[in-house]
Amino acid sequence: MLSPRRSSAAVRGALALLLPALLLGCVDEADEKDEAPAGDGSSGDDGGDGGDGAVDTGGEDTGGEDTGGEDTGEPPVIDACAELGLPVRTFDAVGPFGGLRRETMADFSLPLRGGETWTLSERWSGCEVYVFLPHYFVVSELDTQTWWSTGVDDLLRRSPRNVHYFFVVGTADGDDAEAFGSQMDGWIAEALDTLRDEDRAWWSERLHVVDGASAALSGPAAEIINSEVGSLGFAIDRRQKVRGLGYMSAVEAYDSRLEWPWEWRLYSAANEGEFLNFEEERALRIEAEAASDAARTVVPVFTAELHEEYEDKLITLPDATTMAGFDTLEIEVLMECPNRELAEIGNCGAWDYIANMWLYDAETDSYLEMARFITTYHRESHWVVDASHALAWLQAGGERSIRYSWAPSWNTQPTIITVNLVLRNQGRGHRPTQAIPLFNGGAFNAGYNLREPVVVDVPEGAAKVELRAILTGHGMDASTNCAEFCRHSHHFTVGEATFERRFNEAGTNRGCQDMIGEGVVPNQAGTWWFGRGGWCPGQEVHPWVEDLTAVAPAGAPVTIRYAGRLADADPPDTSGNIELRSWLVVWE
Predict the structure, then answer these.
(1) Taking the mean position of all CA atoms in its chain, how far away is CA 44?
(2) pLDDT digits (tens, 9 = 90+) for 127-141
(3) How close are the terminal C-alpha atoms of the chain, in Å?
(4) What is the CA radius of gyration of the chain?
(5) pLDDT bucket at 51, cuts 50 / 70 / 90
(6) How far apart are CA 56 and CA 51, in angstroms?
(7) Rounded to whole angstroms, how far apart are CA atoms 89 and 236?
(8) Is the pLDDT of residue 110 over 90?
(9) Is the distance from CB of 586 to CB of 488 less than 8 angstroms?
(10) Peptide bond connecting 250 to the previous residue in cis, omega within 30 degrees of 0
């Protein structure tokens, strides 16, 4: 049995950061004291800028030419983007280039086992992701085989089809490189033998074992592989940007004998491609919306600024006349690790705290919640969330004070933050003019539902009426696992109609992992997989929105009631805390 040795100073430095940080990160921290849900250890429930994406300049992977059916002895050339129905993005040969996260990857060539040289520009399809995986991490302290040994077949079964994997022996030792490279050749061959012919042809072109020791490689990719940035591996996304990788433990691989009780699995690398696909699809949607908006203004709040705990900023909005032309507000937040030259783990903040975007209201000397997010365990994140209700507070335009907070005073989590307010006109024909407060949350206990109803006089001019709520559950009661990991529900009764939100994913082993395709940052160094009560580590909290127009007619009063339930009953005492803010939003 080969034991993966590490000779690179970059790798040693990364591991020195990694292990202590992970032992801290095994407990959920959105309310500073949460633990993994009861029953852990079961088998589990099963960005950036760039071109216009219009031209395909890829090499042999994008040919798609007709071979006339002749048997040439070579596998047929597959046009991956056409096969997968994905848009094509042009290879950037101009730059500027760099080897830090979110910088553009320069062209490079790498030698592969078997004698082939793989060159990015020649193999660029314009719709694929490229993931580089070092060998030197072990399954666990009780199983010191390389994590590569845990199953190429499982990696392929879980992976998006538009991903290339590069297996790199991270060492200066040529004998190690030959031994581990040969072993991975065998594992790949075994996995391919289990596939159907068409899948075998597909994946045989996307699994690459780099030849030789990493320390002997040269060129832009090798520089990242041998740097601190790439010490946990790295990826190149569909916009040709360098991206970091995370911690590859798997929720299904639980072993109670371990200090960090989840082993590494190779298939966890598939999460990275799924997330990068989400980010690209979101970016394409935003670009399409920007092209169709009747009006659009981006108001910068913070621009790649290093801050701790929270930061205030005075911004200048357009004047009232211009503001009246917007019907949508989105808030975009990029959270980057404080040291761009290190890997994410042990560099980004360790805990999953509530982050809030606040608007200071001078009239009431209070802060109004515009948006909510949950920070990651040790990883970078990029969020976009609708905050259109806040347009009702911003109608006058001009100077306003914004506060963004993401950590408590006792653990300030230094972070490079970029925040934009995106004002849009989607042609809805009306805009938010009032956000009338309804109910807030509080301690989830036997007295939680002792609330008086709220009566709202809906204005005559209302074209649309909405319920908007920002809602998450926190806390870790020993008996109920609430309110983070218990399945609570929330009920608004408007007149005679009731609207409810149930968090049935709370307490499940994969409730958040199953939402990678909806923006949950994967492979965090903490118990990120578990389903929560209305939130996930590393994701924005999307507002709960219900159209009330039919049940809250213009020009008439409407009575609104609210209750929170646990198992469809009032919660017992000490069942955690509900973070709720809700409004009746009037559109005119």
Answers:
(1) 21
(2) 999 999 999 999 999
(3) 70
(4) 26
(5) very low
(6) 11
(7) 13
(8) yes
(9) no
(10) no
d(CA 546, CA 274): 30
Cα 240 off chain centre by: 18
CA 100/CA 406 separation, integer angstroms: 24
Residue 154 backbone phi and psi in degrees, to 5: -65, -35
480: tokens are 């109920």
Burial class (CB in 10 A: 0-12, 13-18, 19+), 39: exposed
DSSP state of 391: G
Q: Which of 87, 424, 83, 103 is nearest to 281 (CA)?
A: 87
3-state helix, strand, coil in the chain (%, to 5): 20, 35, 45
Give the DSSP H/E element, type plus range, for residue 490.
strand 488-494
Q: Which residues pair with 359 in a beta bridge?
A: 368, 402
Instruction: For Cα atoms 115, 119, 123, give the angle at the middle one, nearest 5 degrees.
Output: 110
- Name 34's bridge partners: none
DSSP-derived secondary structure letter, 162: T
Tell me, what amino acid is at 304?
A: A
Diameter of the chain measured on Cα atoms: 81
- b/e for 202-237, b at 16 or more Cβ within 10 A? bbebbbbbbbbbbbebeebbbebbbbbbbbbbbbbb
- State the Cα–Cα distance between residues 28 and 9, nearest whole angstrom: 31
